[in-house]
Amino acid sequence: MARKLFYENAYDATCTAKVVAVDGNAVILDQTVFYGESGGQPGDTGTLNGVKVISTKAREDGEVLHLVEDPSKFAVGSEVSGSLDWERRLRLMRTHTSLHLVAQVAETIAGKCQCTGSGMKDSGEGHVDLMAAEKRIAGELVPLLEAKCNEVIRKGAEVKAFFDEQRKDYRFIQIDSLPPIPCGGTHVRNVSEIGAIKLKRENVGKGKDRVIVTLSS
Ligand SMILES: [Zn+2]
What we know:
Elements: E1 3-4, H1 5-8, E2 14-23, E3 26-29, E4 31-32, E5 46-48, E6 51-58, E7 64-68, E8 79-84, H2 86-110, E9 113-121, E10 125-132, H3 141-155, E11 159-163, E12 171-175, E13 181-182, E14 197-203, E15 209-215
Parallel strand pairs: 1-4
Antiparallel strand pairs: 2-3, 2-8, 3-7, 5-6, 5-8, 6-7, 9-10, 10-15, 11-12, 12-13, 14-15
Helix pairs in contact: 2-3
This protein binds zinc ion (ZN).
Zinc ion binds at residues 96, 100, 173, 183, 185, 187.
């Protein structure tokens, strides 16, 4: 299994690695900075030895598959240098962190919320589906939620990521002193990096409120 360098430092944009296997157009490395699509976060793009990585997937067992434009350029055992499309990855980290923030701040104004789904695009837009126990997130609550989130972003708050001490494959992130959230994605170190966000609500039925989050830059 590749060593996941993005869990050691999500800000590493480059790495060197050894090719472990080539399967179709998927290259498997002994270590990587490329995040494989999973948990609603799109996989990374970039290059391996200058060859385009079209996308990165997480195999069911967690192995990272780099889907390259020309797999004939890779031989098992050879060294490669990888480079992320960093601008895109950073935007995904900012979007991803913003979705956690929105879900947690929503609880402070609408009571206990269940997050039933989320997703994001590399354009700086994402959504989180919430089922609030006490109040629907609608009407005036949306601008209130937006204002409260932007206040936290302006002030700044640390985002920590850690693995469970007992179950090493359980990973959490924690914003400031809010309750930890199970998540295997990549996030920014401080919510201030998200920048101002805009919120919009979409009614998706079944008691769910979809909050669409757009980064301002
Ligand atoms: Zn996350």
